[in-house]
Specification:
The chain is about 40% helix and about 15% strand. The chain is an alpha/beta fold. The chain folds into two domains: about 230 residues, Type I PLP-dependent aspartate aminotransferase-like (Major domain) (Aspartate Aminotransferase, domain 2, 3-Layer(aba) Sandwich), CATH 3.40.640; about 130 residues, Alpha-Beta Complex (Aspartate Aminotransferase, domain 1), CATH 3.90.1150.10. Bound molecules: pyridoxal-5'-phosphate.
């Protein structure tokens, strides 16, 4: 295939409709552009989406997760168990609140934290759990919460990638303890940057508002107090308007992603890539929102590296990504005592995974083109 006659296919691209663009222009002209009525409407709509539970927005998923930890009372001396196969934000926020991340390796099939290993990692200092739903695929929520209840642990779900995903017919966010979403442009729903925390009650929602804006409470025109140490994490009305415009389409977005994921499974069936041992995600069409379609490369059977493989995709007009290198191998984490070999499944996944294009405006033909390219590269660079 020659590259010249086909448009470059990025691995991700947000879909923003004209009404949202017009809505943003209206906000900009309105005279109130930071946190205000659009944010209130966005929070109300998110709360409705999450079964009526209280929801507060923040200016990033990272801030959302960190404030979730603060609301759960996590601080110095506490341990928080999480997965090493995630975006580094997941464990950086544990250090941010002065606590210690404890990793439990992943199940190489689901690529999510292995709940047996999670349970084995619990100590008297464990205060909370941060499960991550990688690529929008939830962990076994029944088992997770049974473990949390049994050991008296808080759960801060890193559902950054799981907006629109479900567990046994119930939406992620409508169930569970504290649930953190991200609205970064790569996520299934975007507000450019942003995030939202689903809370258990109004008291937690008030605390979330304080942590979000300098710990301030106001009563009347001239009454102001600051009684907790808060930061500056509020979402602008411009961002909230983008989020509101997105929310209208979330069911269609999720359906389209599921359709494209099915096309990937069909496209790979019986091809060279599968014969060579290219790994596919779990074919879950009940719970996952198909945030990403990630393959793993059988590098021992190829004559090229992952980077060269991705370069070959690029030469064929196809974008790809890596989500994620194992967190504990980053310098900051090595300096704090983590070593290669500690979490072999996450290390292997992090070293071999490639995220293929998946976004709502893609077509089944685009997917077929990606599958053909992957098969072609595997054929061209197979050993022996
Ligand atoms: C995107 C993401 C975050 C952080 O969200 P931001 O909005 O980028 O701060 C945290 N955890 C996971 C798993 C993510 O994918």
């Amino acid at each position: 295939m020659t590259q010249s006659n086909v448009a470059f296919l990025p691995f991700v691209k947000p879909e923003i409709d004209e009404e949202t663009i017009q809505g943003v222009a209206d906000v900009l002209r309105s005279g109130w552009i930071t946190t205000g009525p659009q944010n209130q409407a966005f929070e109300a709509a998110l709360s409705e989406f999450c079964g009526g539970r209280p929801v507060r927005t923040f200016n990033s998923g990272t801030a959302t997760l960190e404030i979730g930890l603060r609301i759960a009372g996590v601080g110095p001396g506490d341990e928080v168990i999480t997965t090493p196969a995630s975006w580094v934000a997941t464990s950086n926020v544990i250090y941010e609140v002065g606590a210690t991340p404890v990793f439990a390796d992943i199940d190489p099939v689901t690529r999510n934290i292995d709940l047996d290993r999670l349970e084995a990692a619990i100590t008297p200092r464990t205060k909370a759990l941060i499960p991550v739903y990688l690529a929008g695929m939830p962990v076994d929520m029944d088992r997770l919460y049974a473990i949390a209840r049994q050991h008296g642990l808080r759960v801060i779900e890193d559902a950054a990638q799981a907006f629109g995903a479900t567990w046994n017919g119930k939406r992620i966010g409508a169930i569970g303890d504290l649930v953190s979403f991200s609205f970064h442009p790569n996520k299934n729903l975007t507000s450019i940057e942003g995030g939202a925390l689903v809370l258990n009650n109004e008291a937690e929602a008030v605390l979330a508002q304080k942590y979000r804006l300098q710990g301030i409470t106001r009563t009347g025109f001239d009454g102001m107090d600051c009684d907790v140490l808060g930061g500056k994490y509020n979402l602008t009305d411009v961002a909230a308007r983008v989020g509101l415009g997105q929310l209208k389409h979330i069911e269609r977005f999720t359906e389209q992603r599921r359709k494209l994921a099915r096309a990937y499974f069909a496209g790979f069936e019986g091809g060279t890539a599968r014969k060579l041992g290219v790994g596919l995600p779990v074919a879950d069409f009940a719970n996952s929102n198909w945030h990403m379609f990630q393959i793993t490369l059988p590098l021992e059977k190829l004559t090229i590296s992952r980077a060269a493989f991705m370069e070959q995709l690029k030469e064929r007009g196809i974008g790809s990504g890596v989500h994620y290198p194992a967190i504990h191998l980053f310098t900051l984490y090595r300096e704090r005592g983590f070593k290669a070999g500690m979490f072999p499944h996450a290390e292997r996944f992090g070293a071999t995974t490639v995220t293929l294009p998946l976004f709502t405006q893609m077509t089944n033909d685009d997917v077929a083109r990606v599958c053909r390219a992957v098969n072609e590269i595997c054929e061209q660079y197979a050993k022996g």
